[in-house]
C-alpha cells in the first residue's frame, strides 16, 4: 500500500497551471498573439495529474489536448480572462505554475468593426496587461509559486529580479540561446533559480522531462513542508 502511495506523491495537492499564449483583440477579426504552443504547460499539467495532483489548467488558445482526463481545463483567450480564471481558483490551491506566454501589452481600444485600410500609415496604441503571476505573488499565503522567465540577455540577473518582484519560490529560466530550446520546440534548456538564489542549470531535454523536473521541485517542497 505504501508503495502505491509513493507513486502518487502529489495526491491530495491542488495545482493551478497556466499555459499557452494569450490573444489580445485589435478588432473583430485580428489580434496580437505570440508563438507559444502551450506544450510546456500542458506537459506539466499532464504529469502533475499522473502524479496524483488535482490540476486546474488555465490555457490560452492552443491545439493541444490534455492526455490525462482528470485535468480540469479552463479555456481563455485574453490576458484579462486568464487573470480572472486564475484568481477564481488561486485561494484553493497548494501550488501554482505560470507557464503561459501572457501578452505584455494589448490594444488600448478594441475596434468594434473591422479596421479598413484607409491610410498608408497605421498604428495601434497599446497598454500594459495585468501581470498575472505578480498579482498571485502579492496575495499568496502558503502556495508554492513557480514562474518562468524568458530572457535573451543578463539572464540570471533578470530572472533573480523576477523572483523578487513577483514573490516567487522558484523560477524556471528558459534559454533561447540554445538551438533546441523554446517556442515550437519539443525540447527545452532551463535553469532553476530558487528564492535563495540557488542556481541549478539543467541539461537540454524533452519538455516532458522538464515537466518532471519541475514537479520534483514541487514534491520536494511539500515533503520538506511536512517534516
Ligand atoms: N506573466 C504573467 N502575466 C503577465 C506577464 C507574464 O503571469 N502579464 C508570467 C509568465 O507566465 C511567466 C512570468 O510571468 O511565468 C515571466 O514572464 P516574462 O515574459 O519572462 O516576464 P515579464 O514579467 O513579462 O517581463 P519581460 O517580458 O519584460 O521580461
Ligand atoms: Ca513578458
TrEMBL record:
A GO term for molecular function: metal ion binding
Pathway assigned in UniProt: Cofactor biosynthesis; coenzyme A biosynthesis; CoA from (R)-pantothenate: step 2/5; Cofactor biosynthesis; coenzyme A biosynthesis; CoA from (R)-pantothenate: step 3/5
GO cellular component: phosphopantothenoylcysteine decarboxylase complex
Cofactor (UniProt): FMN; Mg(2+)
One example of a Gene Ontology biological process annotation: coenzyme A biosynthetic process
Domain DNA/pantothenate metabolism flavoprotein C-terminal per the UniProt entry, residue ranges: 10-218
Region annotation Phosphopantothenate--cysteine ligase: where it falls in the sequence: 15-227
Catalytic activity reported: N-[(R)-4-phosphopantothenoyl]-L-cysteine + H(+) = (R)-4'-phosphopantetheine + CO2; (R)-4'-phosphopantothenate + L-cysteine + CTP = N-[(R)-4-phosphopantothenoyl]-L-cysteine + CMP + diphosphate + H(+)
Keyword Flavoprotein: yes
Superkingdom: Bacteria
Record's keyword terms, sorted: Decarboxylase, Flavoprotein, FMN, Ligase, Lyase, Magnesium, Metal-binding, Multifunctional enzyme
Binding site for CTP: 104, 114, 148, 162, 166
EC numbers for this chain: 4.1.1.36, 6.3.2.5
Cofactor descriptive note: Binds 1 FMN per subunit.
Function: Catalyzes two sequential steps in the biosynthesis of coenzyme A. In the first step cysteine is conjugated to 4'-phosphopantothenate to form 4-phosphopantothenoylcysteine. In the second step the latter compound is decarboxylated to form 4'-phosphopantotheine. Catalyzes two steps in the biosynthesis of coenzyme A. In the first step cysteine is conjugated to 4'-phosphopantothenate to form 4-phosphopantothenoylcysteine, in the latter compound is decarboxylated to form 4'-phosphopantotheine.
Protein family per UniProt: In the N-terminal section; belongs to the HFCD (homo-oligomeric flavin containing Cys decarboxylase) superfamily.
Protein name as catalogued: Coenzyme A biosynthesis bifunctional protein CoaBC
Organism: Flavobacterium reichenbachii
Lineage of origin: Bacteria, Pseudomonadati, Bacteroidota, Flavobacteriia, Flavobacteriales
Amino acid at each position: 500500500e505504501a508503495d502505491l502511495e509513493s507513486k502518487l506523491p502529489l495526491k491530495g495537492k491542488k495545482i493551478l497551471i497556466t499555459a499557452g499564449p494569450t490573444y489580445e483583440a485589435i478588432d473583430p477579426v485580428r489580434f496580437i498573439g505570440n508563438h507559444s504552443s502551450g506544450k510546456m504547460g500542458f506537459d506539466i499539467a499532464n504529469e502533475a495529474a499522473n502524479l496524483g495532483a488535482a490540476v486546474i489548467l488555465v490555457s490560452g488558445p492552443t491545439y493541444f489536448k490534455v492526455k490525462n482526463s482528470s485535468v480540469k481545463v479552463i479555456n481563455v483567450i485574453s490576458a484579462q480572462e486568464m487573470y480572472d480564471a486564475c484568481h477564481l481558483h488561486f485561494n484553493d490551491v497548494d501550488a501554482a505554475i505560470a507557464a503561459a506566454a501572457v501578452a505584455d501589452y494589448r490594444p488600448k481600444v478594441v475596434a468594434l468593426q473591422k479596421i479598413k485600410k484607409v491610410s498608408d500609415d497605421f498604428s495601434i496604441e497599446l497598454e500594459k496587461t495585468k501581470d498575472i503571476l505578480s498579482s498571485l505573488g502579492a496575495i499568496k499565503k502558503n502556495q508554492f509559486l513557480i514562474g518562468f522567465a524568458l530572457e535573451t540577455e543578463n539572464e540570471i540577473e533578470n530572472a533573480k529580479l523576477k523572483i523578487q518582484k513577483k514573490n516567487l519560490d522558484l523560477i524556471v529560466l528558459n534559454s533561447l540561446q540554445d538551438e533546441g530550446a523554446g517556442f515550437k520546440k519539443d525540447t527545452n534548456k532551463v535553469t532553476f533559480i530558487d528564492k535563495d538564489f540557488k542556481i541549478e542549470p539543467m541539461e537540454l531535454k524533452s519538455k516532458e522531462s522538464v515537466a518532471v523536473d519541475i514537479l520534483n521541485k514541487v514534491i520536494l517542497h511539500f515533503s520538506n513542508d511536512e517534516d
